Amino acid sequence: MFRLISAFALLIALALPSVAQQAEPATTPDRSATGGAQTLEDIMARQNGDTVDDTFRREATGDPDSAASTMDQLGTLGGASDPELWRALRYGTVDVKVSTADTRGRVLIQDGGMKWLNFREGPLTKYGLWLLAGTIIALAVFYLLRGKIRVDAGLRGATVERFKFIERMAHWTMAWSFILLGVTGILGLIGRKILAPTFGLEANATILMLSKFIHNNVSWAFMLALITVFVMWVWHNIPDRTDLVWIKQAGGIIGSKHPPAKKFNFGQKIIFWSVIVLGGSLSVSGLSLLFPYEITMFAKTFSLLNDWGLTSLVGLDALPTQMSPQEEMQYSQLWHAIVAFLMMAIILAHIYIGSVGMEGAYDAMGTGDVDEAWAEQHHSIWLDEVKAKQGASQNISKTPAE
Amino acid sequence: MKAMLAGAAAIVIIGVGSNLVLGEMGFSAAETYAGDSVRLD
Fold first, then answer.
1. 8 Å CB contact of A218 and B11
2. ipTM exceeding 0.90, yes/no
3. Taking the alpha carbons of A93, A98, A104, A109 in that order, is the dihedral positive or negative?
4. Would you state the pLDDT for residue A16?
5. Which residues of A touch B10 (CB under 8 A)?
6. Is A325 in contact with A103 (CB distance < 8 Å)?
7. Would you say A173 and A225 are in contact if contact means Cβ atoms under 8 Å apart?
8. DSSP 8-class letter at A192
9. What is the pLDDT, as a whole number, of residue A25?
10. How much is the pLDDT for A332?
11. Chain B residue closest to A166 (CA)?
12. pLDDT of res. A302
């Protein structure tokens, strides 16, 4: 029975790509009424949000071979009227020569730029900020319903060292720099849309000038701290069998169970790997934005995705692989912002549990010494290991001289 | 508490330091966009 169901599921999954194909071939519309230019139907279709096949415009860029000689009327235009010249500039098919001698200087009109701007000021800002607001609301509701997670046996008063000074310093370097980067990043995103109308253009300019300065310079501290944290804690964050028990009991966050754990439980391992992966992605896209037009990755990534067939698997058309330098930077900015919002939401939950969410948790990063009762409840295996090491060193020091 | 302050100090030092070092190395915006016919520095 199970084999039948799994075979059926496999069949459905393999049949999906065939559904992704186009419904029927598009018929060439009749544009004789306007002599080959766009018709009322094209305009209505575009306003409806349908895609219009614009090859009739993209390829109408004039024909130098059929130009009249320079002595004849309009001959000096070289076979291309002004609208045809502007079309060629818009679609990037004209041979532009610039004194900056640079690829980006040659792009006089970037066709995809408005789509990027509308997305950045519209859905990206709206859904990003709602994600953060929703996370804060969800955490508040959780706190009201579940309350602070207490140490059941009560705090003992005796402490054991959990994090050394260097571990805490690396964490706080990353933490403060992340907060600075997040705040300045959001200010940069909402500047023109929200800050300028609210506080005026002068104030917006000052705020954003400072934000950009802080964001670009603090990013180096974040990247260094990220590498340090990875090197220090990666061995303790590799998943193992003790995590299976922890996962099954959902960490004991609902109810009264206390699953055992080593130095880091599975919840912390999720946070660690989220920070490394998302923080690393932010660092890479951020470096691309710090050195504009010099570290371009999206054309290559898109062509790899196309080659591996991943785009057709989810039913999309092939991703663009030829992009202007400005387009590369726009994709970098969008990726950077989306990943940043995700990471900020995760870190809000991390800040919650490490401060108001759990009694005794803050001491780990605050002083480095945690209450033994707290350690027994949340990291029992780690506490046993620490005690065993302390006992062993005490035994050695107690051995009398011969 | 000391680790928190040390972390904040590290950010200030690395931030200011990176600004100065990258400027000296020629990675400032003025340096990058200047050219024969473009005087920015």
1. yes
2. yes
3. negative
4. 63
5. 169, 173, 221, 225
6. yes
7. yes
8. I
9. 47
10. 96
11. B3
12. 92
How many angstroms separate the CA of residue A97 from the nearest CA in chain B? 15
The pLDDT value given to residue A106: 83
Phi, psi of A274, deg, nearest 5: -60, -45
Distance (Å, whole) CA A214 – CA B11: 10
Cβ neighbours of residue A281 closer than 8 Å, sequence gap 6 or more: A335, A339
Cβ neighbours for B31, distance < 8 A, ≥ 6 positions apart: B40, B41
Counting Cα atoms < 13 Å in the Cβ hemisphere of A63 gives 5
**A249-260: string of b/e by CB count within 10 Å (b at 16+)?**
eebbeeeeeebb
Cβ atoms of A121 and A193 within 8 Å: the answer is yes
**Other C-beta atoms lying within 10 Å of the C-beta of residue A204:** 19
Is pTM beyond 0.90? Reply is no
Residues of chain A falling short of pLDDT 70: 15-27, 101, 396-400, 402
CA distance A62 to chain B (A): 33
Nearest chain B residue to A163 by CA: give it.
B3
Scan for tokens 């340096």, then name that residue: B31
- What domains can you pick out in chain A, each with its CATH number? 53-95 (no CATH), 113-163+234-393 (1.20.950)
A163-205 tens-digit pLDDT: 999 999 999 999 999 999 999 999 999 999 999 999 999 999 9
DSSP secondary structure of A106-163: G-SS-TTHHHHHHHIIIIIHHHHHHHHHHHHHHHHHHHHHH--B--TT---S-EEE-S
Of B2, B4, B31, B36, which to mutate for an interface test with A (greatest number of A Cβ within 10 Å)?
B4
| Residues linked to residue A160 through DSSP beta bridges, in sequence order | A370
pLDDT, position A103? 76
C-alpha A241 chain-centroid distance: 30
Q: According to the model, what pLDDT value does residue A398 have?
A: 62
- Say if CB B10 and CB B17 are below 8 A apart: no
- Amino acid sitting at position A371: D
Q: 3-state class of A265 per DSSP?
A: coil
Structure tokens at A1: 């029975």
CA A104 – CA A102 distance, rounded (Å) = 5
pLDDT of residue A24: 47
Residue type, A360: G
